[in-house]
Amino acid sequence: MSQITELSARGTAPAPARGRRPHRAWSVAAVTFLTLIGAAGFASLPGLLIDPLHAAFHWSRGTIGFAVSVNLALYGLTAPFAAALMDRFGIRRVVAAALTLIAVGAGLTVFMTAAWQLVLLWGVLVGLGSGSMALAFAATVTNRWFVARRGLVTGILTAAGASGQLVFLPLLSWIVERYTWRPAAVTVALAALAVVPLVWLLLRDHPADVGLAPYGATEFVPKPPPQRGAARRALRALRSAAGTGPFWLLSGTFAICGATTNGLVKTHFVPAAHDHGMPMTAAASLLAVIGVFDVAGTIASGWFTDRFDTRRLLGVYYGLRGVSLMFLPLLLADSVHPPMVFFIVFYGLDWVATVPPTIALCREHYGEDGAIVFGWVLAAHQVGAALIAFLGGLARDAFGTYDPVWCASGALCAVAALMALVIRRPRAAA
Q: What is the DSSP-derived secondary structure letter of residue 265?
């Protein structure tokens, strides 16, 4: 350890061990990927619970949608503070605590008897837990452990959520139909809790903890001291970023991204398809297929982010998403047919392809505070998701159909495409 300390002070990396072992950064990325998969189970459940909770408790879809919207909003609003907390207390402690909170919130829902308990447990507890990791977690790991291949690694870690959706959606929909919703909630709680030992034993906070330079770095990077005042730092980063145009454009586009993915499709696609006579398991399986192609689309987007203009990538992604949403009301039916499969594949490739270029733009514009600024941009994403989760339920109660929501969301995507194209280049790249 004394040798490492001395080398750290000089700013040079320790001599690499002989052999061709992969850099430790890849194993950290693998643990992060598995952790995000385990945590993704809770995000797969809300869309499956709308009809069962409506039938069991006679709560309106607007009420249930409100609980989901609280979850989504807190997910986003917690993210920037979580990035700062990781700087203060370390990634391992924050993520382990977050997974435990998710498990407690999801597990206690089996005892609820009133709508306010759904809001408290699923909305507040699970929302706070999920917001303490998720994409802020991925951005922090990428920024600390990687210099080269950042776009690719961001794409891979972002795809973990889709992989979790692929694993959990068919299972949870089968459990809900066969055994009701309570065993499904317990399954989510156990999945989140099972990942905690993995995080605690295998994850490391910084390359310097194991005497390494970040992957792709030419010099050793000493571990920075813990950053006190996590809340102040997060607010300071927000105040600084809020004085720049790119922050508001990125926040606006990402709010629309959240509205048209987590808020709309993930929450309301299954009940919307069920309205047209499609069995819940079939609709949930279609969402799982979105997860399959989301993995490919997000990793490809990370590769593109390393090579192409990120603003144009975002413009293309949002434009194509808007077109697909406009056609969706014409495709919903009582069975799965080829045009619907085409929509699912197309939408899956685009689902979170927006994340790698958005993180890259935050990093380019805001440097060391990039992960925290992305946390605030993610907050906008989740506020957009929360609004549509709530308004989508109200629209279904009022109009008896989701069609107006699909069309309005498609129009919003066109606005997002235009906003992305007018983001200026960072000064250093000019």
A: I
Q: Using CB atoms within 10 A of its CB, is residue 218 exposed (0-12), middle (13-18) or buried (19+)?
A: exposed
Is residue 215 classed as helix, strand or coil in its secondary structure?
strand
Tokens standing for residue 397 = 């109660």
What values do phi and psi take at 24, rounded to 5? -60, -25
Query: Residue 141: which residues within 8 A CB-CB, separation 6 or more?
Result: 28, 29, 32, 91, 157
Is residue 368 within 8 Å of residue 331, measured between CB atoms?
no
Angle at 158 between CA 154 and CA 164, to 5 degrees: 150
Of 75-89, 183-197, 414-428, the least confident: 75-89
Phi then psi for 86, rounded to 5 degrees?
A: -65, -35
Return the sign of the alpha-carbon dihedral for residues 373, 379, 382, 387.
negative
Per DSSP, the chain holds a count of helices (H) and strands (E) of 20, 0
Q: Quickly count: other Cβ atoms within 10 Å of residue 399's Cβ.
A: 11
Higher-confidence residue of 330 and 167: namely 330
Mean pLDDT along residues 160-171: 72
Residue 293 has which token pair?
């192609």
Residue in the block written with tokens 């759904």 = 118
- Distance, in Å, from the CA atom of 289 to the CA atom of 94, rounded to the nearest integer, reads 31
Amino acid at 313: L
Q: What is the pLDDT of residue 386?
A: 82
Distance, CA of 338 to CA of 316 (rounded, Å): 24
Task: Say how far apart CA 414 and CA 325 lie, in whole Å.
Answer: 11
> What would the pLDDT profile of 299-327 be if each residue is shown by its tens digit?
888 888 888 888 899 999 999 899 889 88
Rounded Cα distance, 419 and 377, in Å: 14
Q: What's the CA gap between 278 and 287, in Å, rounded?
A: 13
Q: List the domain boundaries for the chain.
A: 24-209+237-429
Contact 343, 328 (CB under 8 A): yes
The rounded distance, in Å, linking the Cα atoms of 220 and 11 is 5
Closest by CA to 206, choosing from 217, 192, 198, 197, is 217
State residue 248's pLDDT score: 94
Q: List helix spans (H) across 23-133.
A: 24-44, 46-57, 61-89, 91-108, 115-118, 126-131
pTM tops 0.85: no
Identify whether the C-beta of residue 303 lies closer than 8 Å to the C-beta of residue 159: no
In eight-state DSSP terms, residue 430 is: -
What's the angle, vertex CA 340, arms to CA 165 and CA 418, rounded to 5? 80
The CATH number assigned to the domain with range 24-209+237-429 reads: 1.20.1250.20
